[in-house]
Specification:
By secondary structure, the chain is α/β, with parallel strands linked by helices. It has three domains: 288 residues, FAD/NAD(P)-binding domain; 107 residues, Succinate dehydrogenase/fumarate reductase flavoprotein, catalytic domain (Flavocytochrome C3, Chain A, domain 1), CATH 3.90.700; 88 residues, Fumarate reductase/succinate dehydrogenase flavoprotein-like, C-terminal domain (Methane Monooxygenase Hydroxylase, Chain G, domain 1), CATH 1.20.58.100. The chain contains 14 helices and 22 strands. The strands form six sheets. It has a five-stranded parallel beta sheet with strand order 9-3-2-13-20, with helices on one face. Strand 2, helix 1 and strand 3 form a beta-alpha-beta unit. Helix 12 runs parallel beside helix 14. The radius of gyration is 22 Å and the shape is globular. The structure holds flavin-adenine dinucleotide and succinic acid. Succinic acid (SIN) binds next to loops.
């Protein structure tokens, strides 16, 4: 067992922001599955939204966020995040993030749903620069211990205390050490889940391999409410390539003039769907691309920016340009084949403005949460921002409540006395593939009640099999993830069946209208 003051699950933007904000006050352990750079943060391309231009206002950013979120957002959260954005950017600059500049001022690019230029970025690889700066700062702090290769399995709560308690108090996590195969308890006065999204529940996703909703599933199993899980965001423009399956083509390509075209007729179709054309919010553009593909039996649509100056295109999107060249596509001269793919988990663990969950001692921040910021559809480049604002908010709340946070009591070690090594790994692979396929086909961009019920039926059948497997065999990362993927699939489908309207990302042919009132879907364990 290891004991620190605070346990943080996740080394992305949310986890490291919280760790850095806490480290002058207490000893922090940051756990990560696989490598420290394995989350979505390192993959972010477009940038971070903040009101920094003289002609822009907080009110504009708030309004754009609420319009994209189809009114499901909690206004106080939107105001809190938007108003804290310039401070978050300042902190990142202090930590050394080399944001692009133009004539000494920060260069602001534009993305769908934004009425103004307000996205700061580092070329087209913002996430990598942010991840590197946060890691460097965290590594330099004596009070932060970074421990990669730890797959957290479940939260440690009152029922794991040596003297059982039904309080629901969270004391840390049980985690599998991926190099030794042993499970350890890591305990502290408070725990922060910053474990990212659940994108890999879908067959096609821009998210990294580890985005399996572990934190959401752990919090749910421990008794925390989750909200708006039906709001899964699909990005309109993921590269279509038979070998490279999840390479994103940033929204900023459309922000800088890229046009979507029918690949056979060359018709620019977005104005037929929405007056904002290519710069409509993501749900609108993703549905339009899906519609074009299904209507004409296409494999992909075209995203074309070849009408712009080649030096501007290659200079503005150097990483995408180089990557596409290796695949035989010169984006300065020809269109890029693209398809929609799952991109972001808008729902998650319900938190308040201080990052507190329902469970005493448990905080959460970033993509694993539902803070009220995104509503029914996240506005582009608002998610890294949410990580910085809530990572810091959770840290501040912990520091403010320090005197009320007791030291952990003795905890029972992980019990492996009734399990053996698996002799049927094929069960895991089979179920992984099956979940991701039926979620894509039945719970995708356009839904129907019948398809959702088909998915629910499969989830029920698989639940028994996977729980049985989990109860008999020693845990592996794949098994931990499979159990969580299925749990998240269940939460998504239950939430989708519950919503009897089409709002934002949840679009169902059986209830195409918008209900007069925007109400969160809140699932109670
Ligand atoms: P992540 O960065 O995903 O980190 C999750 C962490 O949790 C990782 O360290 C992981 O190892 C750890 N973890 C997970 N499960 C476990 C477990 N069981 N045990 C231990 N550790 C665990 N947003 C923007 O605002 N702007 C953009 O330009 C942008 N571009 C994007 C491009 C791509 C391709 C993708 C996929 C997303 C993009 N997003 C963007 C979204 C944004 O990157 C993410 O929402 C954000 O980075 C999430 O940060 P996080 O800290 O919540 O989680
Ligand atoms: C992108 O660069 O298109 C992704 C931006 C985001 O997800 O916010």
């Amino acid at each position: 067992m290891s004991e620190y003051d605070i346990i943080i699950v996740g080394s992305g933007a949310a986890g490291l922001t919280a760790a850095i904000a806490l480290a002058d006050h207490c000893r922090v352990l940051v756990l990560a599955k696989g490598e420290l750079t394995g989350g979505s943060t390192a993959w972010a391309q477009g940038g971070i939204a903040a009101v920094l231009d003289a002609g822009d206002t907080f009110e504009n950013h708030i309004e754009d966020t609420m319009v994209a979120g189809a009114g499901l957002n909690r206004r106080e959260t939107v105001e809190f995040v938007v108003e804290n954005a310039p401070h978050a950017i300042e902190r990142l600059i202090e930590m050394g993030v080399p944001f692009n500049k133009e004539a000494e001022a920060l260069h602001l690019t534009r993305e769908g749903g934004h009425s103004h230029r307000r996205i700061v970025h580092v070329d087209d690889a913002t996430g990598w620069a942010v991840q590197a700066a946060l890691l460097k700062t965290a590594e330099a702090h004596a009070n932060i211990t970074l421990l990669p290769g730890q797959a957290c399995i479940d939260l440690i709560t009152g029922r794991h205390e040596e003297r059982y308690s039904g309080s629901g108090r969270v004391w840390g996590v049980y985690a599998l050490d991926e190099s030794t195969g042993t499970v350890h308890a890591h305990v502290g006065r408070a725990t922060i889940l910053a474990s990212g999204g659940a994108g890999r529940v879908y067959q096609f996703s821009t998210a990294p391999r580890g985005a399996t909703g572990d934190g959401i599933a752990m919090a749910w199993r421990a008794g925390a409410r989750v909200s708006n899980m039906e709001m899964m965001q699909f990005h309109p423009t993921c590269l279509y390539n038979l070998e490279v399956k999840n390479f994103l083509i940033t929204e900023a390509v459309r922000g800088e003039g890229g046009i979507l075209k029918h690949p056979v007729t060359g018709h620019r179709y977005m104005p037929d769907y929405d007056e904002r054309a290519e710069l409509a919010p993501r749900d609108v553009v993703a549905r339009a691309n899906d519609d074009q593909i299904k209507r004409s039996g296409l494999d992909f649509v075209h995203l074309d920016i070849s009408h712009k100056d080649p030096d501007f295109v290659a200079g503005h999107f150097p990483n995408i340009y180089e990557k596409l060249l290796t695949l035989g596509i010169d984006m300065t001269k020809q269109p890029i084949p693209v398809v929609p793919a799952q991109h972001y988990t808008c729902g998650g663990i319900l938190i308040d403005l201080a990052g507190r969950t329902d469970l005493p001692g448990l905080y959460a921040a970033g993509e694993c949460t539902e803070s009220g910021l995104h509503g029914a559809n996240r506005l582009a480049s608002n998610s890294l921002l949410e990580c910085f604002v809530f990572g810091e908010a959770a840290a501040k709340d912990i520091i403010a409540r320090w005197d009320q946070l007791d030291a952990p009591p003795p905890i029972r070690p992980w019990d492996e006395s009734r399990v053996t090594d698996s002799d049927e790994e094929v069960v895991i692979k089979q179920n992984w593939t099956e979940i991701r396929r039926f979620m894509w086909n039945y719970v995708g961009i356009v839904r129907t009640t019948k398809r959702l019920e088909r998915a629910q039926h499969r989830i029920k059948m698989m639940t028994g099999e996977i729980e049985d497997y989990y109860g008999h065999f020693r845990v592996t990362t794949d098994l931990i993830e499979l159990r969580n993927l299925l749990q998240c699939a269940d939460l998504i489908v239950k939430s989708a069946l519950h919503r009897k309207e089409s709002r934002g990302l949840h679009y169902t042919l059986d209830y195409p209208a918008l209900l007069p009132e925007a109400v969160d879907t809140v699932l109670v364990p």
